[in-house]
Amino acid sequence: MSIAFLLTALVMAVTPGTGVVYTLAAGLSHGRRASVVAAFGCTLGIVPHLAATITGLAALLHTSAVAYETVKYLGVGYLLYMAWAVVRDKGALVVDGDAPRPAARVIGSAVLVNLLNPKLTIFFVAFLPQFVPAGGSGAADGSGPVGAMLLLGVVFMALTFVVFAAYGLCAAAVRDRLLARPRVMTGLRGVFAACFVGLSARLAVA
To answer: Does the residue 5 lie in any domain?
Structure first.
C-alpha cells in the first residue's frame, strides 16, 4: 500500500462534507458517544459504494443518466430534509441537553447521509483502481485486483472513521459551553441548516 494512497485517502476524509457536518452536529447535540456512533454510521454508509464499485454496479451509475439522477436527487431531498429538521428542532441535530438519542437512529441517519450520495461511488470508481498494481496479483495474499480494492476500501473506511470521530469528539468537547449559551445554539442550528442546504445544492448541480 503506497504512501500516496494513504495521503490521498486522508485528505478526502478530512475534507468537510455531509458526513463531517453530520458527525459534528451529533457531537454538539448529544455528546461524545453520539459523535462516535455517527462516525461509525457514516463509515458504514461507505460499504454499499465500495460493494457497487467492486461488483461493477457503479458502471450503471456512471453510464446511466437516469440511475445517477435518481440517486442524486434522493440524496438532495434527504439533505434538504436534514436542514429542515435542524430548523424545526427535530432529529439528531438539535443542540440541547436532552437524553442521548438511540444509537440505531443516529446510525440510520448517518448511513443515509452517505448512501444517497452517488458521487461517492463515482469517486471510488476513479480513485481505487489507480492504486491497484497492474499485471500482478494486486494484493499481498494473491487474491487479485478485487482483494486489493477491498483492502484499499477497508483502509479508506478506517481512516474515515478515525477522522470523523476526531471531528465529533472535538465538537462534543465544547458542547457544555455551548449549552449555556442559547443564542449560540440558535446560531449553530442556522449554520448546520445552511451547510446541509449548500451541500444539497452542490450535489444537485454535480
So the answer is: no
| 3-state secondary structure at position 95 | coil
75 lies in some domain = yes
Query: The cell 486522508 sits on which residue?
Result: 10
* 10 occurs within a structural domain: no
CA–CA distances in Å: residue 86 to residues 48, 188, 189:
27, 9, 6
pTM of structure: 0.71
State which residues form the domain around 147.
18-204
What whole-number distance in Å separates Cα of residue 117 and Cα of residue 72?
6
- Report pLDDT for 25: 84
Q: Would you call 15 exposed, middle or buried from its count of C-beta atoms within 10 A (0-12, 13-18, 19+)?
A: exposed
Tens digit of pLDDT for each residue in 131-156?
766 554 555 545 566 778 888 889 99
Neighbours of 22 (CB within 10 A): 33
Residue 153: which of 25, 51, 39 has the closest Cα?
51
Residue 92 DSSP code: G
Cβ neighbours around 84 below 10 Å, total: 14
Q: Cβ distance 114 to 18 under 8 Å?
A: yes
Does a structural domain hold residue 9? no
**Domain total for the chain?**
1
pLDDT digits (tens, 9 = 90+) for 12-46: 788 777 888 888 888 887 888 888 999 999 999 88
